[in-house]
Design brief:
Length: 275
């Protein structure tokens, strides 16, 4: 039996919804009947009238724990062409924080609670108990994979899985609260500083500036999410200064944001975090 198919069946037996991935970490392509959404939608969803195709040709939505489907003739070609096994974290009730490089891993170690960790080709997957909305590039080198997404299965990892923290959930908040502040305020702190060296804070601010500057679209939301992430990581211990906030505001304004919008986004982020 195909090695990847064996892995998939073992995972499914443990309640992990799986699907095959072809070269390039891509799911199986649509079959002729489902191409260009001609079938009406994704399978394995509860909405009546959507596609009932039994092939693994709808990406994350095709992920299943049913061994009959996984080992069926409809999936056989996909397994022969597969180069990896993937799973749908949201369907499994977990969230994968995908860290693509050393700086992202450093951020996670300083900011997030420890949990189960899996080594990847370029970085690490941190896996938390609990599902949430997925989002790419929430920070430089950081993706969130959970509901309506898939991740490669790279092994069980090490460590004990812990509950999904609010810090991760906050990274994908995209709609600011309707408050209208007049000035920006840097938190005064009072909590214990978790930043062992000034270099960590400097790296975090530089990464935030880079994320804002690199935004090709959705600048409003990018600015807000970035402010939210910076305040979540650095806003409670007193390390963040007016100069740091000014740097972030300047980066946002180079992308066309007004000073007023910067102030709104900053204060809304503080409000979302209870600061």
């Amino acid at each position: 039996m195909n090695r990847l198919l064996c892995t998939a069946l073992d995972l499914a037996d443990r309640g992990v919804p799986v699907l095959p991935l072809r070269a390039g970490k891509l799911p199986a392509g649509n079959c002729p009947g489902c191409r260009n959404n001609a079938c009406g939608g994704r399978p394995n969803m509860k909405t009546p009238g959507l596609c009932t195709c039994r092939r693994p040709c709808h990406g994350w939505a095709a992920a299943t724990v049913n061994p009959t489907i996984i080992n069926s003739p409809d999936w056989a070609t996909a397994w022969r062409q597969a180069e990896a096994v993937a799973f749908c974290p949201g369907k499994a009730g977990v969230t994968v924080v995908d860290l693509d490089h050393a700086d992202a891993i450093t951020w996670a170690r300083r900011t997030l609670p420890t949990t189960r960790t899996v080594a990847t080709t370029r970085g690490e997957h941190w896996i938390y108990r609990g599902a949430m909305q997925s989002a790419n590039a929430v920070l430089p080198g950081v993706d969130i994979k959970s509901a309506m997404s898939y991740a490669r299965w790279l092994g069980p990892g090490t460590g004990t899985m812990t509950a999904l923290p609010d810090t991760v959930r906050a990274l994908i908040v995209t709609k600011p609260s309707p408050v209208r502040p007049i000035t920006a305020t840097v938190p005064t702190g009072g909590g214990e500083c978790r930043h062992r060296t000034p270099a960590y804070l400097e790296r975090g601010i530089a990464m935030a500036e880079q994320r804002i500057t690199a935004a090709a679209s959705g600048v409003h939301n990018t600015v807000y999410r970035t402010f939210l992430a910076v305040l979540s990581a650095h806003g409670r211990c007193g390390c963040l200064t007016d100069d740091h906030a000014a740097r972030l505001f300047a980066a946002a304004q180079t992308k066309g944001e007004s000073p007023r919008h910067c102030t709104d986004a900053w204060t809304n982020a503080r409000t979302a975090l209870g600061m």
